[in-house]
């Protein structure tokens, strides 16, 4: 695989298999990077407390993230490359026009945002945990008694789905109750559910009114992350609730940095406008949200950005301080507060 001038992946003539697959595409990451000879370089701020500069090919990627079993493990990754070929020019046109007036480009952008929201490690882990919980509950029921377990073993043997020596009930029960195992979900299953999930999110994004905003020169720049689609409650008081926000729920806001100089905020009932010369405090609050929703890393063109902190996001801090910020370093299983 190689990248064209827009950072869109293309399959090499030899059909070689890509080892690392980006879940945040390189053409998008270019908007938060600076050119360095033959590659674009971004400044990485990691929740672990590290900060460093590296080529965008090294971030927001996992080995074999979209690889499937078979003679052509990269067939899905190659298909995504063709999809990115539509996203990149649409995003460029929107950034140039600073408007979503072009219906076709607006639709492509909404699909891109839905795609970013679903095709990432956090969504996969959420689905894996759900599948694991269901599987463990089934095993709990199967191990409720020796009689039930042995009866199910006989059914599996009769159906031809189990062969080999029997495993003692107490051994299986002890192993299950120890919890010293992890239930994994094949990549194929993740990919199978991703497409309908994107299709489910897309119409809710289309129904929102989107504000495009660009910071003033004094306000610095926007940052991005390895999970750039930020879904929040519009009312901060609801953040403490048991249930998280959903893309189709009223009273929610979607924040997406599109480039270092352009961000989009979508709300139900909102007007579609362009805000130029965004004040420093407002740009800082966008960056605060982006940093909070990062999975592990934040990406920026450098430290020339500001972010908000404190109650109500009223305190401004320079980008260089984010790596040592206790709120940023502290994260839960969801990756945000």
How would you describe this structure to a colleague?
The protein is of the alpha+beta class and 337 residues long. It has one domain. It contains nine helices and 16 strands. The chain has helices at 26-29, 75-97, 103-118, 121-142, 146-159, 169-178, 187-207, 280-292, 326-329, and strands at residues 2-3, 9-10, 20-22, 34-36, 39-46, 51-55, 61-63, 209-215, 224-225, 230-233, 252-259, 262-267, 274-278, 297-300, 306-309, 315-318. Strands 4, 5, 6, 9 and 14 form a five-stranded antiparallel beta sheet that branches.
Identify the notable features of this structure and list them briefly:
single chain, 337 residues, alpha+beta, five-stranded mixed sheet, 9 helices, 38% helix, 21% strand, disordered N terminus
Task: Write a concise synopsis of the structure shown.
The protein is 38% helix and 21% strand. It has helices at residues 26-29, 75-97, 103-118, 121-142, 146-159, 169-178, 187-207, 280-292, 326-329; strands at 2-3, 9-10, 20-22, 34-36, 39-46, 51-55, 61-63, 209-215, 224-225, 230-233, 252-259, 262-267, 274-278, 297-300, 306-309, 315-318. Strands 4, 5, 6, 9 and 14 form a five-stranded antiparallel β-sheet that branches. A five-stranded mixed β-sheet has the order 10-11-12-8-13. A two-stranded antiparallel sheet has the order 1-2.
Please write out the topology.
Elements: E1 2-3, E2 9-10, E3 20-22, H1 26-29, E4 34-36, E5 39-46, E6 51-55, E7 61-63, H2 75-97, H3 103-118, H4 121-142, H5 146-159, H6 169-178, H7 187-207, E8 209-215, E9 224-225, E10 230-233, E11 252-259, E12 262-267, E13 274-278, H8 280-292, E14 297-300, E15 306-309, E16 315-318, H9 326-329
Parallel strand pairs: 8-13
Antiparallel strand pairs: 1-2, 3-7, 4-5, 5-6, 5-14, 8-12, 9-14, 10-11, 11-12, 15-16
């Amino acid at each position: 695989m190689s990248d064209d001038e827009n950072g869109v992946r293309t399959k090499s003539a030899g059909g070689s298999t890509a080892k690392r697959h980006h879940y945040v595409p390189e053409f998008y990451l270019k908007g938060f990077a600076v050119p360095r000879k033959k590659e674009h370089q971004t400044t990485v701020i990691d929740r672990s407390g590290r900060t460093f500069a590296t080529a965008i090919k090294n971030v927001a990627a996992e080995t074999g993230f979209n690889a499937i079993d078979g003679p052509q493990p990269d067939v899905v990754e190659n298909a995504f490359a063709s999809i990115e070929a539509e996203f990149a020019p649409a995003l460029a046109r929107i950034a140039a026009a600073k408007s979503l007036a072009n219906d076709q480009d607006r639709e492509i952008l909404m699909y891109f945002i839905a795609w970013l929201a679903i095709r990432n490690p956090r969504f996969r882990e959420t689905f894996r945990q759900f599948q694991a919980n269901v599987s463990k509950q089934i095993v709990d029921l199967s191990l409720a008694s020796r009689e039930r377990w042995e009866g199910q073993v006989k059914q599996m043997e009769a159906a031809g789905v189990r062969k080999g020596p029997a495993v003692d009930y107490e051994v299986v029960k002890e192993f299950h109750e120890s919890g010293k195992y992890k239930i994994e979900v094949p990549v194929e299953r993740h990919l199978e559910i991703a497409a309908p999930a994107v299709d489910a999110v897309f119409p809710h994004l289309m129904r929102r009114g989107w504000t495009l905003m660009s910071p003033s020169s004094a306000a610095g720049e926007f940052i991005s992350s390895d999970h750039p689609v930020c879904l929040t409650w519009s009312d901060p008081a609801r953040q403490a609730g048991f249930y998280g926000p959903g893309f189709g729920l009223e009273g929610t806001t979607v924040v997406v940095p599109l480039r270092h100089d352009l961000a989009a905020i979508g709300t139900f009932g909102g007007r579609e406008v362009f805000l130029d010369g965004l004040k420093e405090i407002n740009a800082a609050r966008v960056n605060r949200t982006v940093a909070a929703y990062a999975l592990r890393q934040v990406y920026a063109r450098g430290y020339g950005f500001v972010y908000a902190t404190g109650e109500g996001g009223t305190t401004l801090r320079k980008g260089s301080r984010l790596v040592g910020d206790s709120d940023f370093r502290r994260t839960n299983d969801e990756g945000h507060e």
